Batch of 3 targets.
Target 1
Amino acid sequence: MQQTLLISGYKCIEGDAAAWPATVVLMVRQDDVLGVSPLELADQAVGKLTEHSDHKYKGLLLVGSRSIDEGDLRGRIESGPSTAAYLDARGGQFLLERRVSWLRQEALRPFRAHNLRRLLDPASLTAKAARIDCPATLADDVKEYQEQRAFMNRSQELSCVRWPWVSLSILGIWLAVLGGMVALAGSRTLEAVFLQWGALYGPRVAGGQWWRVISTGGVCATLGHLIFNLLSVLLLGGMLEILQGRWRVAAVFLFGVVTSSLLSLYVHPTMVSCGASSGGLALVGAAIAVGVRFGGEFPRHTRWPLVGLLAMAALLTGSSSFEKHVDWAGSLGGLIGGLALGLLIVRSPIRVAWPGAWVYPALPALAIATLLFAGYAVARVPADAPWDPKNPRAELQQKLADLQREGELRTLLEDHRRLIAALEAIHRDVHAGKRTREDGLRAFDQTLVRMRDYVRVIEARQGPPATPSAGKDGEKLQALRRLLEARLAYASLLRKDLERPSMSIAALHRARMNAQQGEMEYTETLLRAEGLDLGRSSTPGAGKGAGTSSAPPGQDKETRR
C-alpha cells in the first residue's frame, strides 16, 4: 500500500524506519497529509496529524486484519479526522468516512472507493512500485524533510520574516491601480488612462516627470498582465523575503523598475508602456543571483525544485511582456537590473557573514553607471515627439492651463523657440541621412502645426498688431509680430528645402539671421520699455536727449552683432 502511495507522488515526512511496519508514517503531497498507521496505533496517528497545522487536508488510513463488521471499528472511523478509512488487509474490504465538500474533490484522492480497492488489490501493484524499498525510502525522505525544515527555519530566523509583507504590498498596489483605472477610465483612450496613472512615456520624462521611471512599476496593462505578475510574485516573492529579508526584496524590485524604464526609454522612447512585469522579472534576476552565489548551501534535494519554480515564475512574467503597451525591452531591463543588484547585495540564507570587500566599490559604480545611462537614454527622446501620443496639441493645452501667472508670454516664446530648434534638427537629420525624406517631412509638418498653434495663442494673448502711435506697448507688440513672422518665414524655407533640396545655403542663412535679428530687436524693445537704453547715451557726438533718440543704423548693427 505504501509502495502505491509513494509511486503516486507522496513523500514520507515522519516515521521510524527501524520499527517499520509497526509505526505511524506521515506522507504528504501538495496540501494533503496522510497518516498511515496500524489499527493499534490509531490514537498516536491522530495526535501526529493534529500537529501538522500547515496542511489543509488531513486523512487517516488505518490498516489491520480485523473484519469491518466488528462494531467498534465504524465508531473509531467516524470519530477520526474529517476523512478516515480502515483497510482489512486479510479480507480485502474497507470502511470509508470521507467528509470533503464538492469544492475540494481533488483533495485526498486516495480516500475514494476505487482507489481504496486498488490499494487492497495486490494485482494492481506495478513493477516499478514493487521495487521500492519502503524502510529505506522512509529513512531517506524523513532525512530530506528534516534538512529542508532546518534550512527554512534558519532562514526565517535570520530574516525575521513570518509574512511576506513586501510581496503582499506589491500585489495590493497592482490591484488598486488596475481597479482605479477601470473605475475612472470613462471614455478616454487607453494611452490617456495609462499616462494618468503613471505609465512611462519618453517625452514626459524628458519634460521633467522623472517620477514616471518608478511609477510605471505599479501599472498593469491588462487583466492577463496582472494575473501573470500576481502568480509570479506569489511564487517567488514570498520565498525571497524569507531567504533574503524584506529590504533586499524591496530594493531589487525598485531598482529593477528603474533599469527597466531606462532601457525602455533607450529602445522605444515614444512608447507608452506599463512596467509591472519589470519588477517581477527583477525578482527572478535576484533569485538567479542567490543561486549563483549561494546555491551550494541549499539542501541537495531542493535545488532542482527551486530551479523549476524559478523557471515557472520567469515564464509567467515573461509571457506577459509581449502584450500591447508592455515593452519587451523594459522586461529585459528589469531582469538585468535585478540580477546586477542581486549579485551585490544578496546574502547567505543560513549564515551571518559580512559582504565581500568588492561589494563596497561596486555599489557606487553601479549607481553612477545607472545615472549616466539615464541621462543618455533621456537624451535619445526625439525633440519633436508630442506631449500626448494621441493628441499632438495637448502640450499647448496643458501649458495654457498651467501658466496662468506672470511670465506666461516669455514661457510661450521659449517653447516656440524650442520648436524652431526641433525643425532644424529634423532638417539636419534628413540631409545627414539619419531620416528618410518622407519621415522627415511628416515629423516636420507635425511640429510646424504646433508652432503655428503657438503663434495664434501668442497673438490672441497680446491682441491685434498695434500702430506706431500706441507708445511703448505698441512698440513691443510690433517687435513681437516681426519676431513671429521671421520665425515662420525661416520655418517655411526649411520646409521648402526638404521638399526640393535646391535652396541656396545663403537664403537659409539669411532667413535664420532674420529670425535671430527679430529676437534681438524684441529683447531691445523690452529693455527700453523697462528704462534701459543699451548704453547709447554714451555714444560720441550724441547731444542732449540722446538717451531717448534712435541710435545711428551703424551702431544698431554693431550692437546687435
Target 2
Amino acid sequence: METMKTGIPIALAASPRLFGTFALALCLIPACALHPERKQTVEERDFIEYVPPEERRDLDEQIAALSAEIERDFENAELHRRLSVLYRLQGTPRGRLLSSEEIERAIMLDPGNAMYRVEKGLTLAARRFVGEAEAAFLEATRLDPRCSQAWFQLARLERDEYFRTMSHPDHLAKAIDLFGEALRRNRKDEETLLNLGFLHSFRQMHRTGLQYASRAALYHPRSARAHLLCGMLRTKLKLFDEAAASFASAFLLMSDEELGPYENIAPLLPRDETELYLSSLPAKRDDWNRRFWAEHDPTPATEVNERLLEHYARVLAADWSLSNERIDLDGWESDRGAALIRFGPPDHTYYDLGSGTSGAWVVWSYTTPGGAMRLYFNDEFLNGDFHFPIGDHYGEVSRRLLETAPQRYEYPLAYAAFPLGVEMAELRGADERTRIDFSLAIPDSMRAPSSGRWNLFLTFFDSEWNRFSRNRLTLRPDTLPVIDKPAGRYRVYSGAIEMLPRELGCTCVLELVSDPDRKKAVRRYPLELRSMHGRSLKLSSVRFTIRDDAGCGDALDPVPLYTRSEALCLGYEVYNLKAGADGIFRYRVTYAIKKPDSGDADAPAGPRRTLAYMWDSIRGGKRGEKPYAEASFEQRADAPAVSDNLRIDLAALEPGVYLLVLLVEDLSTGESAGESRRFTVAGRD
C-alpha cells in the first residue's frame, strides 16, 4: 500500500470515516495495554514550568517592548536573539515555539555567531528535542571552539541524561569530559566548577571533586552552593570539622526558604510522627530537631554531629541530582529524594525501559541485615518524574518500606560496640555545687589496647538538648578492680565531678572509647542536677554500693544485680536537718521494697519523685500491694548533715526487678524528702 509523506496510508487518507476509525484505534492502544485500569494521560501542563504571576507580567511587558523595537529594526539579529530568550523564559509550549522562530531569524541574519547556535540549542532542549539541541551545540563548537557555553550545554545534556536514571555511567563520563572542555575555556566559571565537583562524587572521587568545589568557593566566596558542595565532599572524606564549617558558611548565605530542606527531618521520622512534625509550629519543630539530632549523634562528646552532616550531604545530593524543573519538583521532595535522604545512595541500581504506556522503571536495591530491600520508581506520566507508581503493587510496597524501614546510616569510622554498665548519684558538693558520683562496669573480657589508656567522655545536655558541659578522662582497664556478678565479671571505674545545679532535668551521655582497637560504648543517663544546698531538707540519691572485705563499701555499684544470698548495701546523705530544743538533730528513715508500677521511671535512677508519690509507694503503690520489705526507725545526729548506710537482706525476695523507696523525715520541722532506685535479684546464685 502506498503512503503519503506523512506516513498515513493513502487509502486511509482518502476515506475520512476509515481514517477516523484508524485514529480511534491508535488512541485506544495505550489505554488497554499492560495496565488497562490506569489512566496514562500526558497533558500539556506537564511541560509548563512554573513562572510567578509577577514575573510573567514583567516578561509580557518586555516582550511587547522588544517586539515594537524589532518592527523598527528588523535586520538586527541581536534583537531577535533577545526576544527568543524572553519567549523561552515564558515556560509554555507556545512560548518555546515562538522562541525557535526568533532564534532562527537571528541565525539567518548572522549565521556565523556561535552564541546564536547555543540559544537555539537551549530552546530545542526546552522543547525536549534533545538530539536537535545537541546538534546545535556541536555546531556552535565548530563555529567557535573557544565558546565555553557550547561545551557547557553539551555537558549539561549528558549530565541530565545520567541523572534521569543514574544507571548509565557512560553519560557521567561524557559529562565530566565536556565540563572539563568548558573549564579550559573559562577557568573561573562557578557553574562549571560546581558541576565537576559534584559529578566526581558519583565516581567516589571525592578528593578531586573537593579541589573543584574549593576553587569555586575561592573565586565566588558569596556562593552558598560552593560552600554546600565543599561541606558534602568533606563529609564524604571524613573531614568532619571542616565540613561543619563549610555548611555553616553556606547557611549564613541562604534564605529561610532555602534552608528549609536541610532543617526538615520529616524524611527520617517514623510514619506516625511525620504528620505531627509537619503540622507543628516552627518553634516546636526547632525543638524537635534539636532533640532528634542529639539522640542521633554518633559522637555526643564532640561538637560535631557526623549524622547531621551526612543528612546535609544527602539533601544536597537529592536536590541537585533529582530536581525536575519542568514540573517544578524539588529533588528532596521527590520519592527518590526521600529515599536518598532516609537510606542514602542505593547499593545497586537497575533500569528497565518499560513499555510505551507505563514508562521506564528504576529500581534501587539496598543491602540490609534482613536481606535485599528494593524500591521501585516508575516514569508513570512520561514526564521524567520517577516516583512510586500509583495503584501499583510495587509502588505500594515501596512506599511502605520508605515509611517504615529504619533509616540507614553507618558511622564512617567503624567501632566495635560493647556493653557498659553505668550508675550515677547526686550528692552535695562544695561552693553551692552538686557532686555527681559515677561508676562504670567494663566487661572483664575486654582487653586494654596497646596504648593502655581509654578515653571517657561525659557530655551533659539540658532538657532542650543543648550541650552545657563536657569532660574528658582517661583510664586503664587493666588496673581497675574486679567485681563478680551473676551476669559475669566486670572491671569498675569510679569517679566524681561537680557542677552548678540546674532547674530542669538533663541527660549525661557517657562514651568510653578505645581508638587503637576501635572499641566504643555509649550510654545515656537521665539526671536532675538538684541543688543540695539551701535551707530546706535535702536527701541525696540512693547509692547502692559495692561490698568490700569490711562489709559495705563506698564505691557506687554500676551493676545493681544481686543474688538472694547477698545483702543489699546502700548509702545516702541527709542535709539541712534542724536541731531540737536540746540541740540534737532527730530524723526518721523509712524504706520499702516493692515491684515497680507501670508508671515508674524506666531509667535506672529515675527522676526525683514527689513526696505524695513516695508515700504512696511505701503503702504499696497503685495496686495497693504490700511491700516485700519495709522498715522505719529513728536516728540521731550531732550535725545538720549526716551520711548513713543500710544493709538489707534479700533472701525473702523472688527473682525479678524491684524498686527501693527511701523517705527521710525531719522530726523537728516535719519536713520530708524521698528518693528511689531500682535493682534486680538474679534467678540463680
Target 3
Amino acid sequence: MSVAKHLRKLWSAAFRAMDDIKETVRNSGDKLCRALTSLTVRLSDVSLTGVSEARQTMDIVLPFLLTEGILSKVDSIRKASIGIVMKLAKGAGIAIRPTLSDLVCCMLESLSSLEDQGLNYVELHAANVGIQTEKLENLRISIAKGSPMWETLDLCIKVVDSEALDQLVPRLLSWFDLELASIQGLGWYCQLYYITSSKVGVEIKPYTSRLLRLLFPVVKDEKSAASKRAFASACAIVLKHAAPTQAEMLIDDSAALHNGDKNAQVSCAILLKSYSSMASDVVSGYLAAIIPVIFISRFEDDKFVSGLFEELWEEHTSSERVALQLYLEEIVSLICEGIGSSSWASKRSVSILNLQSAQAISKLSEVLGKDALLYAIAALSVSCNKAISSDDPATMNEILSVVSSACTKKAKKYREAALSCLEQVVKAFGNQEFFNVVFPLLYEMFTSGTLSQSGKATLVVDAAKAEEDQVEKFSVPHNKVLDCMTACIHVAHINDILGQQKNLMHVLIATMSSGLPWTVKISALSSAKELCSRLQKVLDDSQESPANANIISLVQELFLSMPPQIVECISTVKVAQVHVTASESLLVIIKLYQKLQPIRCIDVQFKDELVHLYEVEKNGEAKSLLKKCIDTLENLKQESVQDDSMCMS
C-alpha cells in the first residue's frame, strides 16, 4: 500500500504523456497506463487485497478517473479511463459502495454524452431514407446495452445496498430535475432503468413516490414507442414497491390516458401492459379500473391503438363472456362518462354514441345477449340525456322508437328488459310528446289479455296446457307496463292526460279489481298517486280561475271509482307494504277531491269499512295514514254541509 498514495500522481503523469505532441512520448504514456491499470486493479481487487485497503485505493483513483479521465477531451484517455473503471468495478465488489454514487452518475451521463453522434444524424434523416424511428431507437438501446458503461452499471447494481441508495437516489433525482431539458431519451432510459432495476428491490421503497412523479410524465410525453416502453418498464418496477394509495393513483392516472390523443392512448396501453407483466400481483387488485378501459379502447378508429388494446384484452381475459359479465357495470359506466364529458364530445363529435362506444355496446350485445344492449341504452340515456338532446333532438326520438319496438317482441326476457329500458328512457329525457307515442302502446299491451296469478298477461284464462305454453310467448309483466305508464304520466302535458282519461281509469280500476299479485297492485297505486300529483299541481297553479271541466270530471271519477277498490285491497292483501302504499294513495285521492270544493259531497259508501280497517290495522304507518283519511272525509262532509246551508240561506 506504500505505492497507493502515489497513484493519483502516477495516473496524472500517464494521462499527460498520452496527450503529448510527440508520438514516442504518447507511446510511453500508453505503456505506463497499461502498467498502472494492472497495479490499480490488483490493489482494488478484494480477492487479492483487504477490503479496507481496496476502499482506500478506490477513494484515491476512482474520483480522478471519473473527472480527469472519462471527461477528458482526448479520445484515447477517455476510452482508457472507461475500460479501467469497468475493471475496477469488476474486482472491487463491496469496496466500491462508498464511491457508488459518483461512479453511477458518471456512467449514466456517459451513456448519452459518449453516444455515437452518427446516430443523431441518422435520426434526423430517418424519415427521408425510410428508416423507422422505433427501429432506430431499439438500435440505440441495443448499442447502449453492449457498452462498457452499461456493463459497469450492471456491476454496480450487484453490490448496491440501502445505505448506498440513501446517497445515490436523492442525488440522481436532483440531477434529473436540473438536467431534464438536455438529457436525451436514451440517457433517461438508462438512468431510470438503473435506479429502478428489479435487482435493487425493496430498497427503493422510500423513493417510490418521487420516482413515480418523475417517471409517469416522461412516459406520457415521450414520442418514441421504444423509449416509452423502456420508461414504462421502469415505472412498473417502481409500482411493485409502491404504497397502495400510490399504486391506485398511478393506475387510475394511467387508465385515464385512454381519453387523450393518440400518444396518450399509446402510453396508456404500454403502461398497462408493463404493469401486467412486471407487477401483476399489484394490478390484480385494480382490474375493475383496467378491464373496462381495455375493452372500450379496442374499438378505437386508429388501428395501431386498437391493436395494442386488443393484445391487452387477450392477455387479461380467458373468456370474453365471463369478463364482460364480471365488469359489465363498470364498462357501461365508463361509456356513459365518456359520452357525457365535454372533452369526449368535442373530440369525436358524437350524436348519441360515437363509433367507438357503438361498437363496444354492439359487442356487449353480441356476447351477453340483446337485453344487455337495452340496459346499456338505458344507462346511456340516464347519464347523457342532456348531451344527446342538445346535439341532435331527433336522436332521442330514435331511441324511443327502437326501445318501444323492442317492447312488442315475443321473447319474454327481451321484452321485460325493453320495458325496464323504456321507463328509464322516458324519465331521462322528460319529453312531453313521449306520452302520445308510448301510452297507446302500453294500453294495448295491458288490454291484450287477462292476468294470470304470476302477474303476466295471457290471452286465455282456462285453456289447455299446450295452448297456455303457446301464449306464454306473448306474456307481459303488467307491473313493468304500469311502471312505464307512471313515467309517461310524470312527463306528459295535462291535456294529453285528460285525452286518455277513459283508458287511464280502465287500467287503474281493472288492475285493482283483478286477482293480481300485490306487487302489480303497488305499481297501479303508484300510477294513481302520480296522476293525482299532476292534477294537484294544475289545480294549485290555477287557484284564481275555475278548474277545467275535464279536470273536474277526472278527479270525480277517481274519487268515485278508486277508493272502494283501494279499501278492498287493504282488506284482502295482508302485506304491510301494500297497506302503506294503498293508504297513501287513498289519502292523496281524498285530498285532491277536497281541493274541488265547493262541490257537493257525495255519500261515501266505504267510510264504515275504512273505520274498521283503521281499528284492526297493525302497521303503525298505515294506521296513521288511515286516520288522516277518515279525518279528511269528516272535514269534507262538514264543508259540504256548510256550503248547503249557505246556499239555502
